[in-house]
Amino acid sequence: DQQVKQNSPSLSVQEGRISILNCDYTNSMFDYFLWYKKYPAEGPTFLISISSIKDKNEDGRFTVFLNKSAKHLSLHIVPSQPGDSAVYFCAAIGAGGTSYGKLTFGQGTILTVHP
Amino acid sequence: DADVTQTPRNRITKTGKRIMLECSQTKGHDRMYWYRQDPGLGLRLIYYSFDVKDINKGEISDGYSVSRQAQAKFSLSLESAIPNQTALYFCATSESEMGQTYNEQFFGPGTRLTVL
């Protein structure tokens, strides 16, 4: 039972264009959402997050959008750079129940940005 | 120096062998976690510990055990390794803060384990 889903295993974009990575979730107890970035041979690193009380959070080139009614979030990278090439994981955490205090990850999306 | 270290970084072992993966942190965090990453499945939580005296099972704890030797050390053991435990294993840490649902998790570099 995959509670956080990233249905696109990979995404390829041209340098300078927008990258849009999508994530869907099923657990209505999730109230905080995060994106992690992972390079080969390294652990994941935190990128950006959003609370369920917001619908948008922006940090430089990275913006995360949350649509609670659709249980969907997306990460926009504008403009994309070759150094953004990595695996991106969507993750969620709950305010209570079995999801409290624990991250639930999606499967990951491999982003490749071509020069 | 890395804040979260894992040893070994790579390990190849045989079915039935006992394996221990170690994690140490210098961040002073109370909370520690063990995850495994498999292709197409993302990261899944194996065990977590919110302080030295607290150990909890995660999503996929069967076949694994853990030991929290100190605030800074959290070890994962495979008592009798099997091939489907071949995966990339990550340790992570986070602060604990009263009333805070989430504090950022910091990950180690991972251990690649192969069970033949």
Task: Summarize this structure as a short list of keywords or feature phrases.
heterodimer, A: 115 residues, mainly beta, 6-stranded mixed sheet, 5-stranded antiparallel sheet, globular, B: 116 residues, 7-stranded mixed sheet, 4-stranded antiparallel sheet, 11 strands, 55% strand
Explain how this protein is built.
The complex is a heterodimer of chains A (115) and B (116). With 115 residues, chain A is mainly beta. Chain A has no helices and 11 strands. Chain A has strands at residues 4-5, 10-14, 19-25, 30-38, 45-51, 56-59, 62-67, 72-77, 86-94, 104-105, 109-114. In chain A, the strands form 2 sheets. In chain A, strands 2, 4, 5, 9, 10 and 11 form a 6-stranded mixed sheet that branches. A 5-stranded antiparallel sheet of chain A has the order 1-3-8-7-6, with no helix packed on it. In chain A, strand 7 (62-67) and strand 8 form a beta hairpin. Chain A is globular and about 45 Å long. By secondary structure, chain B is mostly beta strands. Chain B has no helices and 11 strands. Chain B has strands at 4-7, 10-13, 19-25, 31-38, 42-51, 54-57, 65-70, 73-78, 87-94, 106-107, 111-115. Chain B is globular, with a radius of gyration of 14 Å. The termini of chain B are far apart. The relative contact order of chain B is 0.33.
